[in-house]
Amino acid sequence: MTEHHNGAPPAPRFGVNYTPTDDWFHHWLDFDLDAVRADLDSIADLGFDHIRAFPLWPIFQPNRTLIRPKAVQQLVALVDAAGERGLDVAVDGLQGHLSSFDFRPAWTLTWHRRNIFTAPEVVDAQAAYLRTLGSALADRRNFIGLTVGNEINQFSSDPHPDPDLITPEQAETWLLRMLDACEQGAPGRLHVHAEYDAAWYQDAHPFTLAHSARLGGATAVHSWVFNGTAQRYGSQATATAQHAAYMIELSKAWARDPHRPVWLQEVGAPSPHIPAPQAPGFAEATVAAALDCPDLWGITWWCSHDVDRSLADFPELEYSLGLLTNDRQVKPAGRSIARIIQAVRADGHRPPRPRATGLVVDASQESFKRAELAPGGTYFEAFMRLVEAGARPTAVLAERAGDHEHLAARGITEIITIDDV
Questions:
Q1: Where are the alpha helices (DSSP H) in 138-228?
Q2: What integer is the mean pLDDT of 46-61?
Q3: What is the distance between the alpha carbons of residues 336 and 338, in angstroms, rounded to a whole number?
Q4: Least C-beta-crowded within 10 Å: which of 93, 262, 310, 311?
């Protein structure tokens, strides 16, 4: 990962989560490189510089001691095809969970049911799998790095119907083991882990904001306004447009490095929470707000192409999240994102000014609840009131509110509490 503490930060990256047009992620069962190339052409035409790719864990590792060489070769072929089109590739490992479906190998279920976070033989197999993927891609110049898995924290707690329960300490032990396996496979690449927002907003969830903001090469943010934000405040409210930026800035309170990169790794315009005619405006407002956050590594939109409606049982919103249709036609939101990318590149990269107003998070109190950070919570609403008043707030832990060195490193000149707002 590029260090930029003593110079100008690199320009933020613009990418998209790649959803194949042929058979969605089931395309790994009948991998067609020509279809993948056509999809990648349509992505590159919009001006993106990277994609996020998703091998399905049960297909790649159907037995605890079998990592299929042909599947790994197909992943390498996808990465190479992307490179031919000027696209870098970040690869997720343990899929895990995608679009309401769980993908766990049979050797972790029913008769072989074992906790995927703590059973030693399962953890060893996961580490071997991540090392294998990393090793296969380590010499590809357009390989960004590995994400441990997509929102795999949803297996660890409610509301999953059959969770593998763990403690925060066990979650951290598992994350460190997985990230180490990624580094062993592909040294020096950008390896991260990615949770859905229960880690930020759900009391007693074993994965925490501190895990997100301190482990791995960057903090990965997954911002979805169907989490109650759009329902509570409305599709065109400040809170809805600013939700992704809020999560980016909230993470910085827990980060030890004052310039830790933050990757907005998933964000999208879910219908009907964001009605289709409003999707371009939502995309523009969300991206503009994120670009106003210092130390943003990049934005990776969810997703590239719509899900084919011949596939059954997806939640309705999943079918229409693409920037392109299932037959690769650009949608209005896709045109909006393409214009933004073009404008940012044409204007050159001007890093945003530091966010000088620090809103204190008093997370050390025994009475503190993560729900206070969630939409409708006292902290969330104070933050949004500041934004509506014209401020550009960021988050600061109470224990650092008097740390002048930390505040100076982040450019914070004003400290306020939620009682002041």
A1: 168-185, 198-201, 209-214
A2: 98
A3: 5
A4: 310
User: Is residue 67 predicted with pLDDT exceeding 70?
Assistant: yes
∠ CA(213), CA(15), CA(99), 5° rounding? 75
Structure tokens at 182: 């990624």
Q: What's the pLDDT tens digit per position in 320-373? A: 999 999 999 999 999 999 999 999 998 887 899 999 999 999 998 888 999 999
Rounded Cα distance between 310 and 322, Å, is: 16
The residue type found at 280 is P
C-alpha 41: how far from chain center = 23
Residues 260, 226, 54: CA angle, nearest 5 degrees: 60
Residue 38 has pLDDT above 90, yes or no: yes
The terminus-to-terminus CA distance of the chain in angstroms comes to: 37
Run of H or E including 340: helix 332-347
Contact between 108 and 122 (Cβ < 8 Å): yes
Residue pLDDT, tens place only, 278-301 = 999 999 999 999 999 999 999 999
Residues in the chain: 421
Question: Strand (E) positions, 93-214?
Answer: 97-98, 101-102, 143-150, 192-194
* Phi, psi (rounded to 5 degrees) for 343: -65, -45
pLDDT score recorded for residue 5: 42
With beta carbons less than 8 A apart as the criterion, state whether 157 and 149 touch.
no
Q: Residue range 91-108: average pLDDT?
A: 95
> In whole angstroms, what is the distance from residue 378 CA to residue 258 CA?
25
- CA–CA dist 402, 163 (Å, integer): 40
Give CA separation, 41 vs 35, 79, 324, 344, in Å. 10, 13, 12, 21
In whole angstroms, what separates CA 170 from the centre of its chain? 22
CB burial of 28-49 (b: ≥16 within 10 Å; e: otherwise) equals beebeeeebbebbebbbebbbb
CATH classification number, 13-347, choose in 3.40.50.10490, 3.90.580.10, 3.20.20.80, 3.40.50.620: 3.20.20.80
Question: Residues 81, 296: contact at Cβ < 8 Å?
Answer: no
268-281 residue pLDDT tens: 999 999 999 999 99
91 contacts 53 by C-beta, under 8 angstroms? yes
* Structural domain boundaries in the chain: 13-347, 357-420
φ, ψ dihedrals at 235, nearest 5°: -70, -25
Above 60 in pLDDT, residue 1? no
